[in-house]
Design goal:
globular; 58% helix
Length: 69
C-alpha cells in the first residue's frame, strides 16, 4: 500500500481543527480520512517547535540547513 503524503498546509489546518476549533481527534481524523495516531503526532510535532514543524518537500529545519551549508 502506498504511503500518503500530506502538505505542510494540510497538516497545519488539521492541527487547527483540534487546537482552535475544539474538534475531537476522532471526528477530525474521520473527516480528514487519516488515522487518529497520525493526527496526534502532527499536534505533538507542532507543539514542540511550530516554525520548523513538518519540513518535508525540500524545506529543511534550521539546524539541517546550517549543516548543509
Amino acid at each position: 500500500m502506498e504511503r500518503r503524503q500530506f502538505t505542510r498546509e494540510f497538516k497545519l489546518e488539521a492541527v487547527k481543527l483540534i487546537k482552535e476549533r475544539g474538534v475531537s481527534y476522532a471526528q477530525a481524523s474521520k473527516d480528514l480520512g487519516i488515522d487518529p495516531p497520525q493526527l496526534r503526532s502532527w499536534v505533538k510535532q507542532l507543539a514542540g517547535d511550530p516554525q520548523p514543524a513538518f519540513p518535508g518537500h525540500g524545506q529543511m529545519k534550521p539546524e539541517q540547513l546550517e549543516i548543509a551549508q
